[in-house]
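Replying to the earlier thread about multi-chain prediction with a worked example.

Input:
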Amino acid sequence: MTELFAQLQTRDRSAPDCVADDGICPGWIADNFDRYLDPFWQHVFLTLVSVGIGFAIAFALAVMAHRRRWLVPPITQVTGILYTLPSVAVFFLLLPLTGRGNTTAIIALVAYTLLIIFRNVIAGFDNVPPETTDAGRGMGLTERQLLWRVELPLALPEIMAGLRIAVTTTVGLASLAFLAGAGGLGEALFADYTFRSNVLVAGGLAVLLAVILDLLVLGVQKLITPWTRVAT
Amino acid sequence: MSTTLAFLGEFGDAIDWIFNSRESQAGGAQVGGAENLPLLWTHLKLTAAAMALAIVIALPLGLALGHTGRGAFATISISNTGRAVPSVALIAFFVAFFPGTPEFWNVTVALALLAIPPILTNAFVGVRQVSRDAVDAARGMGMSGPQIVRSVELPLALPLIFGGIKTSTVNVIATATIAPLVGVLTLGDPIISGSVYGREGQIGASIMVAALAVAAELGLSALQRSVTPAGVKLERGASGTPSRLGTLKRRIQTVP
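Result:
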């Protein structure tokens, strides 16, 4: 009789005892893994788009503020406020303006990455040795050439470090995007948060995604700054 | 009240909701206004409990590791891993794996784990960056290890330590918003249970959470300024960094 009841559970048929006990069930995970794929790719989409837009904005702001130092404190303050505002609150503060869905989630996630990336790009530019810029000027480089050929390459390690922090943080925050109606692994996680298998798979995939993206950025950094490999 | 705020549209309704209670969407119970106070109280209680737990664990550990100079790799790893674990996953993990414990304590422990990495890393880095000359001088004056930590390293590391506590507090306040998903009714409840509280409740509670986070940030910054020794402030002023930029600079640890 109890077995019959267990079979009626919507979750599973293969290992009813394990699933009924909210346990860790390899069989259930193997059978149901495909239901995590859509949330996973949605999570990847939210993260990449948000970090991409955030990087474009923050980098442009940093390049602008690099030659006009007086811009640094106001930009840092404004992005600092955006960084302080809890993303869950931002999701709902945007509700009257952009409704529910990807747009709202992405705006909130972008707002959160700005300070992280802006600060690191500025720090990267600040740490460029003055001798190199002097040498560049002496060779007759224009300000624009100086920026792209001398300062930017030398600032890359710090810029990429900021990007790594932004990526891992955004993967974590995108887990809350379901509250803005944008799905993601958080939705799968909270659909059944007392079921250990579900928590492990959904949470594990989010951590895995953060680690993979972090390593990818690190790999790109190694590729585009070959001289640092020699130095260290 | 609602007429004066009408030009704000839905935001006006939301602000009205914060101050004046009304019947819930589902009928029956009252929501908004004074009914928000218990939610606010739980939110503050949860934040305080999690932060207290995190500080008690992370601060002495960070100071000790920084003083001895051991565990640099472990500390950095903890902070990197901590960033990668989503807060929701951590809360769900504790609720799923410790079903017997009251939800409040499960969430408290999850939030404390979230708060530990920034405090630990900042305390560690703060003590490490104290000038070796100052420590040597203190040792030459005959101070013992604990004395050096208390009267030299701790005061000089205070700005960074506060930076870590600030980051964690704002984080915990933000994350406590999702505690209602597992049954701890914080200010996040109106946000998550939209069908009961309505849109003005969702937006109103969001305004309250955002205000709480900003207030915590400003309050802790003020506290930080008042406890930073005059000598440290002078040294900072002399180096010519704008102070506001400086405070933010300490909030995010970069690993080059």
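Strands of chain B lie at 22-23, 30-31.

Feel free to reuse this layout for your own posts.
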